[in-house]
Amino acid sequence: MSYPIEGACQCGQVSYKLLEAPKNVIACHCTECQKLATSPFSVTAMVNSDTIEFKGDMSEWCRLADSGNTSCAKFCPTCGTRIYHYNPDDPTNIKLKLKSKGEDDAVFAPKAHIWVSSKLSWYDIPEGAKTFDKQP
Q1: What range defines the domain where residue 89 resides?
Q2: Is the pLDDT of residue 103 over 70?
């Protein structure tokens, strides 16, 4: 994989350029991520804020997470696509929600599955995948 890689929201108003590989990629099965993704889980790429560049205006929404931390979401105000999440107490860690524009999407393949205690019964986690009942 060569960097930078680029991605954008559905309407293209917000875009990003990822300058290096994510620190980690996880699939989260918590009920909040199921709502967010309207899917069994949400995939998140953990990146340092100094390794990603964003263009476009974003709106923000924050909530109290089960961990007791604040989780803020940045999203496109036009199409509503989630761009990333972050904790305002640690804004250097970005939780990127978007897929890249390129054909090689292996960079966003999950390395672990978290909150499997909330996993939907009909979804089977791939054999051999690292799993955590809640937040590691």
Answers
A1: 5-118
A2: no
Kindly write down the DSSP assignment for every residue of 65-127, as one continuous string: -TTSSEEEEEE-TTT--EEEEEETTEEEEEEE-PPPSSS--GGG--SEEE-GGG--TT--PPT
Q: In what order do the strands lie in the sheet with 52-55?
A: 5-8, 15-18, 52-55
Asked whether residue 42 is domain-assigned, the answer is yes
Select from 43, 53, 52, 57 the least CA-distant residue to 21: 52
The CATH number of the domain holding residue 19 is: 2.170.150.70
Q: How many domains does the chain have?
A: 1
Q: Stretch 33-39: mean pLDDT, rounded?
A: 79
Tell me what percent of the residues of the chain surpass a pLDDT of 90.
Answer: 54
